[in-house]
Design a protein that fits this description.
Number of helices of chain B: 24
Radius of gyration of chain A: 29 Å
Helix content of chain B: 25-40%
Helix content of chain A: 25-40%
CATH class of the largest domain in chain B: Alpha Beta
Strand order of the largest sheet of chain B: 12-11-15-13-14
CATH topology of the largest domain in chain B: Rossmann fold
Strand content of chain B: 15-25%
Strand order of the largest sheet of chain A: 14-13-27-26-25-15-16
Number of helices of chain A: 28
Strand content of chain A: 15-25%
Number of strands of chain B: 19
Largest interface: A-B, 40 and 35 residues
Shape of chain B: globular
Structural class of chain B: alpha/beta
CATH superfamily of the largest domain in chain B: NADH-ubiquinone oxidoreductase 51kDa subunit
Oligomer: heterodimer
Number of domains of chain B: 5
Shape of chain A: globular
Radius of gyration of chain B: 26 Å
C-alpha cells in the first residue's frame, strides 16, 4: 500500500490514500460536498462547478470532484468565497431551468431542488433569457422514455453514462454557449440512433429531464414500494429494483453496486417486465370442455382463446382442476406405467420449483422422464464440459471478463442475447485494452469492436478451432507445462488436430488462412484469454464436439483455472443453469448426481421416502415424439412453450394433439397451453420468493414484489398440492424451506441458505456453510481431476443446402424480444420497437431472388413453410439467411431441423436448408431496419 | 504559370553530412546579384497578388529577363497590401496593381531604379522611402519567428534548407540527447506563445518523464482570437519552421507521432503544410530513422472545424480523438494523459518556430533577447485604429507606445489614442496612462490584461469601451462549449447586462452584478476560456468606468457608438442636397429634394452609419440621443 497523504480540510487533519480527489478526502473528513454532475462510475465531468473548494495557494477555486489531494494541502470547503461561488452557480443554473417542481416526477428526489432548498433560493436573481416552457418540445417519440430538455441542467451525466457505461454515444451536446443542449445526432428520434433503451441515462439524471414514460403521473419516489429481485429474462442475472404502487409495477431500477450488471440494465430488464400486469395473465385454473376443433390459434395475444384440441376452456376451481390432474395421471400410470408420463420443468422457474418438479416426477410419478429447454440450448455444454473438465458450466465469473487480455467470442451474439455480458466484453476492449476475436458467420455488433472477425460457414466450428490449434501447436505457442501437469490424452488429440492445416481449414470454413493464423496467435499469446460461446456452438448435431473442441483450445494454451480465462458458455434463460443444477434432466438428480448410480439412488430414495427408477428418462424432443407411438401418453409442462421453442413445429403440433392428457402450468395461455386439458395459473417471478442461478453459477435471491393475480399460485405450491392428491406429502412451508432440503442433498449447493444469499448471492460450488463460493472453477485441479483432451474430427451439419433448398438458415435472438415472446411481446414498448418477425438476407441473395427490403418472403424447408418480412443486410453471409425465433407468425422453428446431437440430444437449430421465394401479398413494413451504427 | 505543388523530386537524405552538403550546394548556386521579386502570395492574395504575380511572369517572360519571381508568405505590412520587394536592391512597393508591373519591370528589374510613385511615403515626414529596411514599420521590428516569412517560397523546401533549414534538427538528433535539448530550451526561458506563457522546457520535461507509449507531439494551430493571424502567417509563410520545431520537440519528449491541429479556415496554411510534410518525408527529414539517427517521427494534419474552444488543450485533444471539442478538467494534464490517454505535449506554432533557432544559437543567445522573465520576441497582429495594421515581431520588453506609434505609425485620421486591447477575448484593455508599460507576460498581467497569443487592437476616441466589452462577451458566449455553468450561463448573463447598458437600460447595481459574476466565473469556470472571459469587462470597468456610468446615468455613449443612444442628424448649413446619402440609406430614412437640405426620419433610421461615411460635405453628425 502506498503511503497515506496528510492534508487539512476545514481545519481538520485528514490522512487519505494518495491519488484520491478532494471530494473523497472531504467525505472521509465527514464533509459532504454538493454536486450535480459527479457520478462515481463515470469520469468526472466537472460541469456544474458546485463542488468547488478553496485550496490555499491556488489562484482559482478547485473542483473537488476531480482535483487530487497532495501532501500538506489546506482545503476550505465552506469559506465565504466558496459559498458565494456555489450560490452564484446555483443561481445561474436556476435562471435557466424550468421550475415546475409542483408537477415534476423528480420532486422530492431532485438534486437541484435539494440544493436550492439548502441555499434558500426559490427563484433566480437573473431575469434574462431562459428555457421558456416548451422551448424544447417534450420528446416522447420513443416507447420508453420522456425527454424534457426544458428541465435539463446540462450536467452531462447522461452523455457520459451513454458513452462510458453503455459504449453507445447515442446522445451528446449540441450547439454552443447558452444554446447548448443535449441531443441525438441531428435531433433524430432515439429509435433511429444507436440507443438501445437501457435507461442508464434516466438513472443518472439528477433532475426531472429524463423519465420513464410508464411512470408519468403515477406517483413520486416516496410513494413507491421498492423490492429488489432478479431479472426473469436472460442468464445474466441482473438485480431489478421493482418500484410498485397499489399492486402495480411502476418502474424498474438497478443498484450501481453489488450486482452483476454494475448499474446497467438492458431494455428488457429496464422496461420489459410490465407483462406481469398484463390483462391476459392467467388468473383461474382452466379445464378444456371438449367440442369441435376450432383450428390453430393465430395472433400474438391469447384473448378469445379457444382450445387447440377442440372445445373451450372453462374456468374451474383449484379443487376441480387438481382432482382432474390427479385422476388423469393416476389412470395413465396404472394403465401404461410411470414412464408413459413425461414432465417438462422450466428454466424460467426458481431453483426450488425445479427441485420440487423433478422430485415430483421421480418420487411421485416414478419416472426419470423429466427435462426442460436446456436440452435445446446447452445440453451439449453440460455434456461436453462435464466430459472435458468435469463440470458443465461457465468456468469463470462475468466480472472477470473485463480483465482478460484476449476474448474469443464464438457463436454468441452477446450484445443482443446477453446484453450485460456484452457490455463487459466492450469494457474489456474499450476500457482495458483487451483484444477481441469474434468467430461468427454473422456481422454481429461485437464484430465492430473486434480486432479480428472470422466468418466461418455455419456448422464448421470444429474445423476452425482445430485449425487454430494446429497453428498453436506448429508454432510452439502451447502451454506445455499446463498440458503436461494438468491434462491427459494430449497425444491422440494432437495427432488429429495436426491434420487441420490452415489451408485445409480455409477450404472447409471459408475463413482465409491468414485470419486463422492471426486468431491463433492472438489467443495463444495472451496472458489471460477467455472464451465466450453460446448457442451458435451448442445447437448443432456436432454441439458436443464443438464444446469439446473449445475446451481443447483453452487447455492447450493453459487458459483454464485462472482468473479472467476459461470456457464460458452463456446460458440463455434466467434460471437455465439452476434448472440443470437442480436435476430437471432425465439422467441426473440435483447436483449432477447420476440416476444410474445405485448409491445415489439409495441416497435419494432415503431422503425422499420413495422408490426411484435407475433408468435415465427421455429428453424433451424424445418425449414429444414419444406421443406418436403412444410411449408417452401424458405430459406435465411447467412454464415451457415447446410448441414454439422446439424444432420442427409441425411435428410438435401433431405430438401435442396426440397426447391423452396434458397439463400446462404457466402465466399466460401459451401456444402450448392451448393444447392442454388443464391449464393452471402460475405466479410470475415477481410474485414469489426463491432463487435463480445465473450463467456464472451465482445463486441469487428472488423476492416477492406483488401478490399473484386472481387465484394464481407459485409453481412449487401447485406441485405440492398435486403431489398431495397423488398420495405424496410435500411438507414445505416456504421456498427457503425447500432450499434447506436442496442443500442437504446437493453438494455444490451444500452451503446455501436463503439467509446467506442476501446481497450478491453465492457462486457454486459452495459445499458448506462457511464456504465463500467459487468465482472460477478448476483452480489447481479440474473437477474431474485432469483435464481430458478429446480428438474431435470435423463432421458436416446434418442438412446442408442443396439444389432444392439452396440457402442455409440460421436462427437467433434479438435484443428486444425473448424466447417465444410470451413475456416480451406482451410489453407494449418492446412490441412497438420490434413488432414483426423478419428474415435477414444478404444483398446478393436478395438481388438473385428479386426481393427488396420490406417485402414478404416465403421460406420453405423440408419440414414446413413460413413467411416473414425481408431485411436486406450484409450482416448475413451470402448464401445464409437468418431468422429470429420469437414470433409465432413467422415461427422459424417450423423450418428448423430436429436432427439431434447423438450425445446431448440437442437439435440442430442453427443449420438447416431452405429455399426462399417472394411471397404473394406484396409489401409490408419489415422488422426494424438496421440501426445507424456510429 | 502555376507553381508546381507536387512533392519535390529530391533524394532522400540519410545523414547530417549530406544535408550540409546539399545546403552548401544550394548556397553556392545562389547568385547574390540575381534579381528576385518577392511577392506576398498569402495574405495579399485577397488584394489581388495573384494577378500581380501573373503580370510579372508575363512581363519578365516577354522581356526574357533573368529574374526570379518568388511567391512568399506574409511580409507583415498588411496596411500596404499587396506588397512586394525587389532584390537585390531591397526596394519596397506597397499597394501595387497589375498595371504598375510593366513599369516596375522596366525600371526596377531591368535597371535597378525605384518607381518613385509606388514607394512608401512616411506619413510623419512626407518623404518617400526606397528600401524596406528603412520603412519604420520594418525598422523597429526584430524578426526571429518570422525570419523566413516573406523571404522564401514556403512551398520550396530547398529554399528553407538553404537558410539553415533542418540544421537545428540535425544538430539535436546527432549532437544532443533529448535531455540536453530540453536543457537548452529550458535555459532559453522560452515560454508558450499560445497565451498562457508556460515555460516550454518544463512542459517538455513533464512529457518526457511521463510513463506511457507512444507519446504525442501536437502543434496547436487552432488560432482563434478575433483579428489574430500570427500562426497562420508562420504556417503559410514558413511551414518548415514549425515542422522542424515540432520534430525537435518530439525528439526531446520521446514522441513518435505528431498532429498539427489547424483551422480548416486556413486553406493556404493547410495546403502549404501538406506540401511541406510530404517534402520533408520524401527527403527523410520526417518519418522513419530521420538522418540515420534512429529517431522516427510522423506528423498528421487534423483540421479543426471552427470551434474557438478547440485551442484549449484538452478540447483540442478531444477533437483529435473524434469527440466533440469540449475541455475536461485538469489534472491530469496532457503531459500525463493526452491524446488517447498517452503523454502528450501541445505547443503553439509560434513557440515551435522559435525552437530551431534556440537549438542552433543556444539558449543563452535567446535569453539575451527580452526582459528578465519574458525572453525572445513576440509576434503581434496589430489591428484596429492604427495606421500600420499588420503582423509585427518585436522583442519582449518593448513598450506599448513603441509598438503602437513607432511600429504601428500611430492613430489614423488625426484621432486620439484611447486604449490598446491585448490578448483577444481573454485579454484586457490598457488605457493611455499605461502606454509606457513594457510588453511582457508579467507587466501585462499586472494591469489585468494578458499577453495572449498576440492579438493587439488599438482603440481611438471613437471606440466605445462598453461596446468593446460587449463584443468580446458576445464572442465568448458564441464560442463557449456550453459545458460548465459559469461559462455557459454566466457569460450569457454578463452579455445580457452589457446589452442592457449599451441600450440605455442599465442600472448602477448592474455594475456590481457584473463584477460579482466576473469574479465568480474567473474563480469557477472549467477551462481557460471561461476563466479569462471576464477580463475585457473587468479591465474596462477598472479603467473606463466613467464610460459605463455615462451610459447608465446619462443615457449617453461618449464615443457615439451604441446605436440605442445616438442619432444621426443632417447639419442644414452644410448639406448641399446632393442626394448621395439618400442613395445609400438602406431603410429609406432620408428624404429631401435635390439641392435642398435633406432630413433623416429618426423612427426609420437603424444607425448603420452609411450616410455618415458617404457624405462628402461633413453634413451629417452623430449626436447623443435627445431624450
Amino acid at each position: 500500500m502506498r503511503e497515506l497523504v496528510t492534508l487539512t480540510i476545514d481545519g481538520k487533519e485528514v490522512r487519505v490514500q494518495p491519488g484520491i480527489t478532494i471530494y473523497w478526502a472531504a467525505k472521509a473528513a465527514g464533509v459532504d460536498i454538493p454536486h450535480l454532475c459527479y457520478g462515481e462510475d463515470i469520469h468526472p465531468i466537472s460541469s456544474c462547478r458546485l463542488c468547488v473548494v478553496e485550496v490555499e495557494g491556488m489562484k482559482n477555486l478547485a473542483a473537488s470532484c476531480t482535483y487530487p489531494v497532495s501532501k500538506g494541502m489546506v482545503v476550505h470547503t465552506a469559506s465565504e468565497r466558496v459559498m458565494k461561488a456555489r450560490r452564484m452557480n446555483l443561481e445561474l443554473i436556476l435562471s435557466d431551468h424550468e421550475i415546475t417542481c409542483i408537477t415534476c416526477e423528480k420532486s422530492g428526489s431532485c438534486l437541484l431542488e435539494k440544493y436550492a432548498y439548502q441555499f434558500g433560493i426559490s427563484e433566480s436573481v437573473f431575469t434574462g433569457e431562459h428555457r421558456e416552457r416548451n422551448e424544447f418540445p417534450i420528446l416522447e417519440e420513443n416507447p420508453f422514455l420522456v425527454r424534457d430538455y426544458n428541465k435539463c441542467i446540462l450536467c452531462g451525466r447522461c452523455v457520459s453514462a451513454c458513452a462510458e457505461l453503455q459504449f453507445d454515444s447515442a446522445i451528446d451536446y449540441a450547439e454552443r454557449g447558452f444554446k447548448a443542449h443535449i441531443s441525438t445526432a441531428f435531433g433524430r428520434p432515439l429509435q433511429d440512433t444507436t440507443c438501445e433503451f437501457c435507461g442508464r441515462c434516466i438513472s443518472v439524471c439528477p433532475v426531472g429531464a429524463l423519465t420513464e414514460k410508464e411512470r408519468v403521473r403515477k406517483g413520486r419516489e416516496w410513494e413507491f414500494q421498492v423490492t429488489s429481485t432478479i431479472c426473469p429474462y436472460c442468464g445474466c442475472g441482473c438485480t431489478l429494483e421493482m418500484h410498485t404502487k397499489d399492486g402495480k409495477l411502476i418502474k424498474v431500477t438497478t443498484p450501481a453496486k453489488g450486482t452483476v450488471s454494475r448499474g446497467n440494465l438492458c431494455v428488457k430488464g429496464k422496461f420489459g417486465t410490465y407483462y406481469i400486469n398484463h390483462a391476459e395473465r392467467l388468473t383461474m385454473p382452466l379445464i378444456r370442455k371438449p367440442g369441435p376443433v376450432k383450428g390453430t390459434p393465430t395472433g400474438k395475444g391469447t384473448s378469445g382463446a379457444g382450445a387447440a384440441k377442440g372445445g373451450e376452456f372453462v374456468e374451474a376451481s383449484w379443487d376441480e382442476a387438481l382432482d382432474l390432474i390427479a385422476k388423469s395421471l393416476r389412470e395413465i400410470k396404472e394403465k401404461h406405467g410411470p414412464n408413459a408420463i413425461g414432465g417438462l420443468s422450466s428454466a424460467k422457474c426458481t431453483n426450488e420449483e425445479n427441485y420440487v418438479f423433478q422430485k415430483f416426477m421421480r418420487a411421485v410419478v416414478g419416472t426419470n422422464n423429466v427435462d426442460h429447454c436446456a436440452r435445446l440450448c446447452h445440453s451439449s455444454t453440460v455434456a461436453g464440459l462435464a466430459k472435458a473438465f468435469g463440470s458443465g458450466a461457465m468456468t469463470n465469473a462475468i466480472g472477470e471478463l473485463r480483465y482478460a487480455d484476449c476474448i474469443f467470442v464464438t457463436g454468441s451474439n452477446t450484445t443482443e442475447a446477453h446484453p450485460i455480458i456484452g457490455l463487459e466484453v466492450k469494457a474489456a476492449v474499450k476500457k482495458h485494452g483487451a483484444t477481441l476475436i469474434v468467430a461468427d458467420p454473422r456481422e454481429i455488433d461485437l464484430a465492430g469492436v473486434a480486432a479480428l472477425h472470422l466468418r466461418q460457414r455455419s456448422g464448421t466450428d470444429v474445423a476452425l478451432f482445430n485449425g487454430m490449434m494446429q497453428v498453436i501447436l506448429s508454432e510452439g505457442l502451447e502451454d506445455g507445462e499446463f498440458i503436461e501437469k494438468r491434462t491427459e490424452d494430449f497425444e491422440k488429440f494432437k495427432s488429429v488436430v495436426m491434420q487441420y492445416t490452415p489451408e485445409k481449414v480455409e477450404k472447409i470454413t471459408g475463413v482465409p488462412k491468414e485470419k486463422i493464423i492471426q486468431a491463433a496467435r492472438l489467443y495463444a499469446r495472451a496472458e489471460r484469454a477467455s472464451i465466450i460461446y453460446s448457442m451458435g456452438i451448442t445447437q448443432h448435431t456436432t454441439g458436443t464436439d464443438n464444446v469439446l473442441s473449445l475446451a481443447n483450445l483453452a487447455m492447450v494454451t493453459g487458459n483454464v483455472g485462472k482468473r479472467s480465462t476459461g470456457v464460458n458458455p452463456l446460458r440463455g434463460q434466467n434460471n437455465v443453469q439452476g434448472a440443470c443444477d437442480l436435476g430437471a434432466l432425465p439422467n441426473v438428480y440435483p447436483g449432477y448426481q447420476q440416476v444410474a448410480n445405485p448409491q445415489l439412488q439409495e441416497k435419494f430414495e432415503k431422503a425422499w421416502e420413495a422408490s426411484l427408477s435407475p433408468v435415465p428418462g427421455l429428453t424433451v424432443v424424445e418425449m414429444l415424439h414419444g406421443a406418436e407411438d403412444g410411449s408417452i401418453r401424458g405430459m406435465y409442462v411447467m412454464g415451457e412453450n415447446p410448441f414454439l421453442s422446439d424444432p420442427n413445429v409441425n411435428r410438435v403440433k401433431k405430438d401435442l394433439e396426440a397426447l391423452e392428457f396434458l397439463v400446462v402450468q404457466d402465466i399466460f395461455l401459451s401456444e402450448t397451453a392451448r393444447y392442454a386439458d388443464v391449464v393452471l395459473p402460475a405466479a410470475s417471478f415477481a410474485e414469489k420468493d426463491g432463487t435463480f442461478t445465473n450463467t456464472e453459477r451465482r445463486v441469487q435471491l428472488l423476492r416477492k414484489v406483488l401478490d399473484p393475480p386472481g387465484r394464481a399460485k407459485a409453481d412449487w405450491q401447485i406441485l405440492s398440492e398435486v403431489a398431495g392428491r397423488l398420495g405424496y406429502s410435500m411438507r414445505y412451508n416456504s421456498s427457503a424451506n425447500i432450499m434447506e432440503e436442496i442443500a442437504s442433498l446437493t453438494p455444490i449447493y451444500g452451503g446455501m441458505t436463503h439467509d446467506r444469499l442476501q446481497g450478491f448471492g453465492l457462486q457454486w460450488p459452495c459445499p458448506d456453510k462457511e464456504h465463500p463460493g467459487t468465482p472460477f472453477l478448476h483452480k489447481g485441479m479440474f473437477s474431474r481431476g485432469k483435464g481430458l483432451f478429446s480428438a474431435v474430427e470435423y463432421i458436416p451439419p446434418a442438412e446442408e443446402p442443396d439444389r432444392e433448398y439452396p440457402l442455409l438458415l440460421t436462427t437467433g435472438r434479438i435484443l428486444y424480444h425473448f424466447h417465444t415472446g410470451t413475456m416480451s411481446r406482451r410489453v407494449d414498448g418492446l412490441h412497438a420497437i420490434r413488432p414483426d418477425g423478419f428474415v435477414e438476407i444478404h444483398p446478393d441473395d436478395a438481388a438473385a431472388l428479386k426481393l427488396s427490403d420490406g417485402e414478404l418472403a416465403r421460406l420453405t424447408s423440408r419440414r414446413g413453410t413460413v413467411t416473414a418480412k425481408t431485411v436486406v443486410t450484409e450482416r448475413s453471409r451470402p448464401g445464409t439467411v437468418f431468422m429470429t425465433f420469437h414470433y409465432r407468425e413467422a415461427a422459424a422453428n417450423i423450418l428448423t431441423n430436429d436432427a439431434l446431437d447423438p450425445v446431448a440430444k440437442i437439435p440442430e437449430f442453427k443449420v438447416c436448408a431452405v429455399k426462399v421465394e417472394k411471397a404473394a401479398g406484396g409489401k409490408g413494413k419489415a422488422g426494424k431496419a438496421e440501426k445507424i451504427r456510429a | 504559370m502555376p507553381k508546381d505543388r507536387k512533392t519535390q523530386d529530391v533524394q532522400r537524405i540519410d545523414n547530417p553530412k549530406d544535408l550540409e552538403a546539399l545546403r552548401e550546394k544550394l548556397r553556392q548556386r545562389r547568385d547574390k546579384d540575381q534579381v528576385r521579386i518577392r511577392i506576398c502570395m498569402t495574405g495579399c492574395r485577397a488584394h489581388g497578388a495573384e494577378e500581380i504575380l501573373k503580370a510579372f511572369q508575363e512581363e519578365v517572360g516577354k522581356r526574357k529577363l533573368d529574374a526570379e519571381i518568388v511567391s512568399t508568405g506574409c511580409h507583415g505590412f498588411c496596411a500596404q497590401a499587396p506588397v512586394l520587394v525587389v532584390d537585390p536592391y531591397g526596394i519596397f512597393y506597397g499597394g501595387v496593381s497589375p498595371e504598375d508591373v510593366p513599369e516596375i519591370v522596366s525600371q526596377t528589374v531591368e535597371k535597378g531604379k525605384p518607381v518613385e510613385r509606388l514607394l512608401y511615403t512616411d506619413p510623419s515626414s512626407g518623404k518617400t522611402i526606397v528600401q524596406a529596411g528603412d520603412v519604420p514599420f520594418y525598422k523597429n521590428q526584430q524578426k526571429v519567428v518570422l525570419r523566413n516569412c516573406g523571404e522564401i517560397d514556403p512551398t520550396d523546401m530547398l529554399q528553407y534548407i538553404e537558410r539553415e533549414g533542418y540544421a537545428a534538427l540535425a544538430k539535436a538528433l546527432t549532437q544532443m540527447d533529448p535531455e540536453t535539448v530540453i536543457e537548452e530550451v529550458t535555459e532559453s526561458l522560452l515560454r508558450g506563445r499560445g497565451g498562457a506563457g508556460f515555460p516550454t522546457g518544463r512542459k517538455w520535461s513533464f512529457a518526457r518523464a511521463a510513463a506511457g507509449e507512444p507519446k504525442y507531439m501536437i502543434c496547436n494551430a487552432d488560432e482563434g482570437d478575433p483579428g489574430a493571424f500570427m500562426d497562420r502567417a508562420v504556417l503559410e509563410g514558413d511551414p518548415h519552421g514549425a515542422i522542424e520545431g515540432m520534430a525537435i520537440a518530439a525528439y526531446a519528449i520521446g514522441a513518435s507521432h505528431g498532429y498539427v491541429y489547424v483551422r480548416a479556415e486556413y486553406p493556404i496554411a493547410v495546403e502549404h503544410l501538406k506540401k511541406a510534410l510530404a517534402d520533408a518525408e520524401a527527403m527523410g527529414l520526417l518519418g522513419e530513422n530521420i538522418l540515420g539517427s534512429g529517431f522516427s517521427f510522423r506528423i498528421k494534419i487534423k483540421k479543426g472545424s471552427g470551434a474557438f474552444v478547440c485551442g484549449e488543450e484538452t478540447a483540442l485533444i478531444a477533437s483529435i480523438e473524434g469527440k466533440r471539442g469540449m475541455p475536461r478538467p485538469r489534472p491530469p494534464f496532457p503531459a500525463q494523459s493526452g491524446v488517447w490517454g498517452k503523454p502528450t505535449s501541445i505547443n503553439n506554432v509560434e513557440t515551435l518556430a522559435n525552437v530551431p533557432l534556440i537549438i542552433l544559437n543556444g539558449g543563452k543567445w535567446y535569453s539575451g533577447i527580452g526582459t528578465e522573465k519574458s525572453k525572445g520576441t513576440k509576434v503581434f497582429a496589430l489591428a484596429g485604429k492604427v495606421n500600420n495594421t499588420g503582423l509585427v515581431e518585436v522583442p519582449m520588453g518593448i513598450t506599448l507606445k513603441e509598438v503602437v506609434f513607432a511600429v504601428g505609425g500611430g492613430i489614423p485620421d488625426g484621432r486620439s489614442f484611447k486604449a490598446v486591447q491585448t490578448g483577444g477575448p481573454s485579454g484586457g484593455c490598457i488605457p493611455e496612462s499605461m502606454l509606457d508599460l513594457p510588453v511582457d507576460y508579467e507587466s501585462l498581467a499586472k494591469v489585468g490584461a494578458i499577453m495572449g497569443s498576440g492579438g493587439m487592437i488599438v482603440a481611438d476616441d471613437r471606440t466605445c469601451m462598453v461596446d468593446i466589452s460587449r463584443f468580446f462577451m458576445d464572442f465568448i458566449q458564441d464560442e463557449s462549449c456550453g459545458k460548465c455553468v459559469p461559462c455557459r450561463i454566466g457569460t450569457k448573463r454578463m452579455l445580457e447586462i452589457l446589452n442592457d447598458i449599451c441600450e440605455g437600460r442599465g442600472t448602477v447595481e448592474d455594475l456590481q452584478t457584473l463584477e460579482d459574476l466576473a469574479h465568480s466565473i474567473k474563480d469557477t469556470a472549467l477551462c481557460g476560456l471561461g476563466q479569462t472571459a471576464p477580463n475585457p469587462v473587468l479591465t474596462t470597468l477598472k479603467y473606463f468606468k466613467d464610460e459605463y456610468l455615462a451610459h447608465i446615468e446619462e443615457g449617453a455613449c461618449p464615443a457615439k457608438v451604441c446605436k440605442a443612444l445616438i442619432q444621426y442628424r443632417i447639419i442644414p448649413e452644410a448639406c448641399t442636397g446632393c442626394g448621395a446619402c439618400i442613395k445609400v440609406c438602406p431603410t429609406q430614412a432620408i428624404t429631401g429634394e435635390k439641392k435642398e437640405v435633406h432630413n433623416i426620419a429618426q423612427e426609420k433610421c437603424i444607425k448603420c452609419g452609411m450616410c455618415y461615411s458617404t457624405c462628402r460635405f461633413d453634413a451629417i453628425e452623430v449626436n447623443e440621443k435627445s431624450t
